[in-house]
Amino acid sequence: MHSETNASDTLPGDGLIRVGGILFVIGAIATLVTVAPLFLGTEPFPTIVYLVAMLMGVGFLVAAAGVLRSIAAQRRQARESAPPA
To answer: 37 CB contacts (<8 Å, ≥6 apart)?
Structure first.
């Protein structure tokens, strides 16, 4: 079964979910990089790498906000299309 989506099918939180996912991946890679010196016995990286690793948590929060916004839009759309009681 093939599902096609149009540009008009995007919900308000979709952009936040994408951005949050990208930030999460960047933060996850930075976290792996910061842990590498522990196993390789090399010098630790500069502080900026540890700060970039914090993007993993920020990305998770941004994506969660996007999911909540998307849920709110879907509920609003369902409420508007429901027949009046």
So the answer is: 43, 44, 45
φ, ψ (nearest 5 deg) of residue 23: -60, -40
Half-sphere exposure of 62 (CA within 13 A, CB side): 19
Q: What pTM did the predictor assign?
A: 0.78
CA torsion, points 68, 74, 80, 84, in degrees to nearest 10? -90
Report the alpha-carbon distance of residue 59 to residue 65 in Å, rounded: 10
Cα Rg for the chain, rounded, in angstroms?
19
* pLDDT digits 0-9 by tens, 24-37: 999 999 999 999 98
